[in-house]
Design a protein that fits this description.
CATH topology of the largest domain: Rossmann fold
Strand order of the largest sheet: 2-1-3-4
Strand content: 5-15%
Structural class: alpha/beta
Number of helices: 13
Shape: globular
Order of helices and strands: EHHEHHEHHEHEHHEHHEHEH
Largest sheet: 4 strands, parallel
CATH architecture of the largest domain: 3-Layer(aba) Sandwich
């Protein structure tokens, strides 16, 4: 299976270890992974800010970079959400439709496409709380939102249960927004910070040592909130746990 790795710009700049863990994990699972070196931003920040037309050049480059691959996989739910649902500034031809439909967030790719459940090389003997970002929860279908009266499911938890030694703990409000919300945390900083404080207190009260997520942007926001509150929480991307890493966000 030929897979193109899409590493979002903020992960490339601030958390390159997440990109490395994603690459290594996919290769462990038998994928032929290619990294197109011309890739840049997918256009999400401009789209989120209401400047959709200004994202056209970034979106067109994204389509050109990833047009020739079976799958495009990224360790960022919010970026995949943009590509899948909002990559609309660029011309909507057959190539664009193919790229949008073949772009997957890492968890859904592992769970739905590769259908892997066990990670025998991975061990993580810690109490872990899962954070589902709003986009991955409600647009990518990572887990059951609390407002739906349907049976529970959680793709990230299905994967994490295949890691030796891990103890999963549940906050009281597992699908509550952490307050990051892209540019929301800039334009509504006090509200965003209060939401983040509530989120990390909820995880801490459940006994979590680590908070894990498929979105480093949410974890970056929560890390700052935890530090301001003096909470001894640690933060790690799900790719790092599944790959057997012990690395923690600095």
């Amino acid at each position: 299976m030929r897979v193109a790795l899409f590493v979002p710009c903020f992960i490339d700049s601030f958390f390159p270890e997440v990109g490395v863990a994603t690459l290594e994990l996919l290769e462990r699972l038998g994928c032929e992974v290619v990294y197109p070196f011309d890739q840049t931003c997918c256009g999400q920040p401009m789209g989120n800010s209401g400047c959709e037309a200004d994202a056209r050049a970034a979106e067109a480059l994204f389509v050109r970079n990833f047009a020739d691959y079976d799958y495009v996989v990224s360790p960022s739910g919010s970026c995949v959400h943009h590509v899948r649902d909002h990559l609309t500034a660029v011309e909507q031809d057959s190539t664009t439709h193919k790229v949008r439909a073949s772009t997957y967030e890492l968890v859904e790719f592992l769970h739905d496409i590769l259908q892997v459940r066990q990670f025998p090389w991975a061990e993580f003997p810690h109490k872990v709380g899962l954070h589902n970002s709003c986009g991955t929860l409600r647009r990518l279908g990572h887990a059951k939102p609390s407002e739906l009266n349907v049976p529970d499911w959680s793709k990230p938890l299905d994967l994490l249960r295949g890691v030796k030694g891990i103890e999963l703990v549940m906050p009281q409000r597992p699908d509550e927004c952490c307050g990051f919300g892209g540019t929301f945390c800039v334009t509504e900083e006090p509200v965003s910070a209060r939401m983040g404080y509530d989120k990390v207190r909820d995880h801490s009260g459940a006994g979590a040592e680590y908070i894990v997520s498929a979105d480093m942007s949410c974890l970056m926001h929560q890390k700052g909130c935890a530090e301001r509150l003096g909470l001894p929480l640690k933060f790690i991307h799900i790719a790092q746990i599944l790959n057997g890493d012990q690395g923690v966000m600095a």
